[in-house]
Specification:
By secondary structure, the chain is mostly helical. Helices cover about 60% and strands about 10% of the residues. A 3-stranded antiparallel β-sheet has the order 2-1-3, with no helix packed on it. The two termini are about 20 Å apart.
Length: about 260
């Protein structure tokens, strides 16, 4: 249950000494997976009533989180079906929100709706890449993009989130210093997004994990500051951000083992 692991070597050593080896991970084309599913998987034929030794070697440029699940085929099919339904509902809601805000922007020409729509695109891409759905459905044969997508899309999400914050809270008028800091964050992340296309994922994952945490906390602090200064619409922005930022803050903490 960890989509970003680069390479997983699985060895099954049977009681008579012979070894069966399989390889999984997102450094292999998606079509090589025994089951077309967002998590790396291997198919094990285990002998009934006989002990086997199961050995694994895991290699990854990202943090190594390795929750292992052993399923019978029927149980796996049921779990995968429920997972697909949940993903469909999530992305259906995301697309509906995106189209609705684009329509509002087209009708009202309010930049806030455009930045919000783009922040949905960034967040959606980040989730697509981090949870293996993009590799399954959108770019299954692009190993080059699969390695770069998580870091690039995380940058994109934070760039558009900061731009939306600047627009909705009218930071240029209400807190000049906060607006300048937010703009600096946008510029730095935009440059890094281009850099991440070329550098190894082992570097980009570490950098974006370290930067995502302060960027998320900053988004929350800006809303608190403007709300305390008396701008009441900030309370709605803060309520809307809380759940998303809680996830954005907890994920890098989890990835760093904190």
């Amino acid at each position: 249950e960890s989509p970003l692991l680069d390479k997983i070597d699985v060895y099954v050593r049977h009681a008579d000494g012979h070894i069966v080896q399989q390889t999984a991970g997102d450094h292999l084309p998606f079509s090589t997976r025994p089951v077309a599913y967002r998590y790396p998987n291997v198919w094990l034929d285990l002998p009934l009533g006989q002990p086997v030794e199961l050995l694994l070697r895991v290699q990854s440029g990202s943090s190594i989180q390795m929750p292992l699940m052993l399923y019978a085929p029927g149980a796996f099919a049921s779990a995968a079906a429920n997972d697909q339904i949940a993903a469909g509902i999530y992305y259906g809601c995301l697309i509906a929100m995106l189209l609705f805000n684009l329509l509002l922007w087209n009708g009202l020409r309010d930049q806030g709706y455009l930045w919000y729509a783009l922040s949905l695109v960034g967040a959606g891409m980040a989730v697509l890449s981090l949870y293996g759905v993009g590799y399954q459905y959108v770019w299954p044969e692009s190993l080059w993009w699969q390695e770069r997508a998580p870091a690039v899309s995380a940058c994109l999400a934070h760039v558009f989130a900061n731009q939306f914050n600047r627009s909705f809270l009218d930071l240029r008028q209400r807190w000049r210093l906060g607006d300048q800091i937010s703009l600096a964050i946008v510029i730095v992340l935009s440059i890094l997004m281009l850099v991440f296309i070329w550098v190894p994922s082992s570097i980009s994952y570490r950098v974006i994990t370290a930067l995502a945490l302060p960027s998320s906390i900053w988004l929350l602090l800006v809303n608190i500051k403007v709300l305390r200064d008396g701008y009441k619409p900030a309370r709605y922005a803060m309520l809307a951000w809380v759940a998303l930022l809680a996830g954005a803050i907890s994920y890098p903490l989890y990835a760093m083992g904190i």
